[in-house]
Design a protein that fits this description.
By secondary structure, the chain is mainly alpha-helical. Helices cover about 80% and strands about 0% of the residues. Helix 1 (about 1-25) packs antiparallel against helix 3. Pfam families: DMT_6.
């Protein structure tokens, strides 16, 4: 149960972080957003990123072996990175319709899945 909760929290966390990091690129299509200066955009991104921490910190605390969770620190990090890339890919394909998913991206993801496999292999 802790593993599933950790993964769900990491997915939520990374969804907010992806929006904070890349959402402003899409928001720039809105007239009111274009009138904002860089500092305002940074503050909006920080506001969105705050929610990333609300999910990231509990995910790491619940999932970490040192706190009774199922994952080592390295496993948590590799899992988080793969979730980040999956969330980013889904976000990109849905929000930025001009991006394409090519064969080299699929190959890269296969290697990432292999990285997770080897990280969890005893």
């Amino acid at each position: 149960m802790k593993a599933v909760l950790t993964i769900l929290l990491l997915i939520l966390s990374n969804s907010f972080m992806t929006l904070a990091w890349y959402g402003h690129l899409k928001f720039s299509e809105m007239k009111w957003f274009n009138k904002l200066g860089l500092i305002s955009i940074i503050l909006i991104s920080w506001g969105i990123a705050f929610f990333e921490y609300i999910f990231q910190v509990p995910a790491n605390r619940i999932g970490f072996k040192g706190n009774g969770g199922p994952f080592s620190l390295i496993q948590l990090k590799v899992l988080q990175e793969v979730i980040t890339l999956v969330v980013f890919t889904v976000f990109t394909l849905i929000v930025f319709k001009t991006e394409t998913f090519r064969t080299n991206h699929i190959i890269a993801f296969i290697f990432l899945v292999l990285a997770v496999y080897f990280t969890f292999k005893k």
